[in-house]
Amino acid sequence: xxxxxxxxxxxxxxxxxxxxxxxxxxxxxxxxxxxxxxxxxxxxxxxxxxxxxxxxxxxxxxxxxxxxxxxxxxxxxxxxxxxxxxxxxxxxxxxxxxxxxxxxxxxxxxxxxxxxxxxxxxxxxxxxxxxxxxxxxxxxxxxxxxxxxxxxxxxxxxxxxxxxxxxxxxxxxxxxxxxxxxxxxxxxxxxxxxxxxxxxxxxxxxxxxxxxxxxxxxxxxxxxxxxxxxxxxxxxxxxxxxxxxxxxxxxxxxxxxxxxxxxxxxxxxxxxxxxxxxxxxxxxxxxxxxxxxxxxxxxxxxxxxxxxxxxxxxxxxxxxxxxxxxxxxxxxxxxxxxxxxxxxxxxxxxxxxxxxxxxxxxxxxxxxxxxxxxxxxxxxxxxxxxxxxxxxxxxxxxxxxxxxxxxxxxxxxxxxxxxxxxxxxxxxxxxxxxxxxxxxxx
Length: 442
Prior knowledge:
Blueprint: H1 3-9, H2 17-67, H3 73-87, E1 90-93, E2 104-105, H4 112-122, E3 126-131, E4 136-141, E5 148-153, H5 164-202, H6 215-261, H7 266-290, E6 297-300, H8 302-315, E7 320-326, E8 331-334, H9 335-352, E9 356-362, E10 366-373, H10 383-386, H11 408-418, E11 422-427, E12 434-441
Parallel strand pairs: 2-3, 7-9
Antiparallel strand pairs: 1-5, 3-4, 4-5, 6-8, 9-10, 10-12, 11-12
């Protein structure tokens, strides 16, 4: 049976590992106890009770037969006195003012209904039964001299403690499940530690982890540690390579700029602009390739970070405003990388529009930084391509117009993913242009 069909029969399944494991432990024990309890009550307990009640029926029939030989209640009492004493009954005739009581069976008397059904089927004179929590059972039956009531010990028709088996099953079932759950919790703890380490690594955190637990869990943990080490080595090698590339490219470009600046011809000025453009391209490529490898997680206040970014752009004469801030506290972020992402979004906003609005929303579990502009926006079908590296949505915009090389949103998306979040693009309801949201999980 596949999981799809299983969910049809069990639409509400627990999602957590502990809850599912607990369900696997508890459900079979509960079903087993339920089946054993039903079989015991409906078969063994009912059969024993019926046999004991049939014995009582024979004794009650004897009382009815002996009472028929008397002409009055007093004579019947004289005839029945030795039988009542021998059977250890309490016997009396109901007075004319008394009515036959209704049948009453206590809710905790498991075998009471079996006693009632046996009396009703095999004792023709039966009228009612009172069988509650007390030790005595009262049976009212008809005689030639009028209705009579007989009382006897409850143990003569039922077991002394029929609920003991159920209580024992429940107690030992709970005990065994508790012990199993404690053992299972110790077995699942290494899996939870591996899950937390993997989740933290995906968000850029590095927490200590060493493989523990069962053989399979240790194998998975060792594979994760090896994978994390390989990724760290790759990041380190990329960082070293980029540092060397940055040095090797910047040095000749700087020397070329110096040589061209000493020339006063018109061609030299054009070539100098090309060199500046090449320098900007190299910086963009290195910035994208570097990603978040040079930025470490640190505790910072997102509101201060956003305010500093807005003030920098306002100092450049750009129309950028911080419109809304919800929530204020310090969180762990890659501060340098996140500032780069916010600068890229504001740069795109003021490049393709005339003004930009920045807002911040901080909750217990998430952080959202929103940048809106009044530019042309990005069509829905092109928003996915806009976050891909080296993709320029408008071919008519050349680099001289300051359109860049198509890395701005790609860098932002890469930084958001490094925080375990995402970059979402939409349309601004307030300004009508592009709305870019950096969504980070905390």
